[in-house]
Amino acid sequence: MTTLFHEGRVSIDEQPIPRVSETMFLGVFVDDNLSWISHISLLASKLSKSIGIIHKSKFFLSTHSLRILYNSMILPYLYYCNLAWGSTYKTNLQRIVILQKRAVRIVNNSAYDANTGPIFKKLELLKFHDIHLFQLAFFMFSLI
Question: Which of 23, 34, 87, 93 is most buried, taking the most CB atoms under 10 A from its CB?
Answer without folding.
Answer: 93
